[in-house]
Write a structure and sequence with these properties.
The protein is mostly helical and about 80 residues long. Helices cover about 55% and strands about 0% of the residues.
Length: about 80
C-alpha cells in the first residue's frame, strides 16, 4: 500500500479517505511483528487501558463512525454510551 497524505483532490471526502488510509497504514506498520502478548501489554503503569490492541480498536470505531454513520447514514453500533461523553 502506498502511503501519502496528499489526496488527488481536496474535497472533504477525499481528504478524509486519504487521512484514514495513511493512519491505517501507519497502524499496520507499527503492529507488524508484535506478538499477541505485546499487543495487549500496557507499557505505562499510569495508563493500564492504553495498549496497541486498544488503539487499533479505537481506530476501528473511528472509521465506523465517520464512514458508516456520518457518510452513509447508517446506524451507530459503536460500544460507547452517552455517559462516556
Amino acid at each position: 500500500m502506498q502511503r501519502t497524505d496528499t489526496p488527488a483532490s481536496w474535497d472533504e471526502r477525499s481528504t478524509l479517505i486519504a487521512l484514514h488510509d495513511f493512519t491505517r497504514a501507519t497502524a499496520v506498520a507499527k503492529c507488524e511483528g508484535l506478538s499477541d502478548e505485546d499487543a495487549r501489554r500496557a507499557p505505562l503503569a499510569t495508563s493500564p487501558l492504553m495498549t496497541i490492541s486498544g488503539v487499533i480498536n479505537h481506530l476501528r470505531w473511528n472509521e465506523h463512525y465517520w464512514f458508516e454513520v456520518m457518510f452513509l447514514g447508517g446506524e451507530d453500533r459503536a460500544p460507547w454510551t452517552d455517559e462516556g461523553f
